[in-house]
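seq:
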Amino acid sequence: MTDQTTLTDEERSLYEWHLWVDGFGEEGQRRLKGARVLVTRVGGVGGALAQQLAVAGIGKVVLAHAGDLRLNDLNRQVLMRHDHIGQSRVLQAAERLRALNPHIDIVPVAENISESNVDRLVGEVDLVASCAPLFSERLLLNRAAVALKKPLVDCAMYELEAQLTTIMPGRGPCLTCLYPSEPHAWRRQFPVFGAVAGTVGSLGAMEAIKLLAGLGEPLVGKMLIADLATMSFRKVQIQRDPNCPVCSGVGRN
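struct:
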């Protein structure tokens, strides 16, 4: 632990209610302060996740998202503003998060995940939060996270359904074990309520906080599936593919 992660009196006051959580305390908060997280992207799911990471005191949050704000983004993208339509989404998100918590470092990257940037972006952080709507991006993030042995929290939703799992290289299945290839029928645009996106984003943020602080039990080898139409939640076991082209050669950490 370096001096950089020592809490100031102001931070102790800001995070006071965190410090009361059983098994967390000041040591847990210092771990969050010293942590670096990549969030991609920062739309409905990723924006809610990034917001919760910021107020939790994650020391450095890297936001990766290309493109400008459209009017029809505003039913779910809580970090955006009506008077900024046509402007960069990631810069708006960074501005809002800095206003929420000036004690942390927010790094906007106006790019979506691609072959050319994925290893660099994943390599610069301690944990990845994957909130991309495209399987191609999610599978790229998974591949890089496994290769670089970085934990990855994968968040997804469709209509009134949400799912969440955690990839810990060497300790359980990876995303390619579940999806060996990109589903052909998947579309970039799909039905979404902001409340559903916010639910899975907040759950993903809590999973990231747990992993970074050593708190609770992560969803390694399990997937949380929620149907918000009936308010039903269940966990299912997921299996590692011994022939997976991404993680089969990765041993336990």
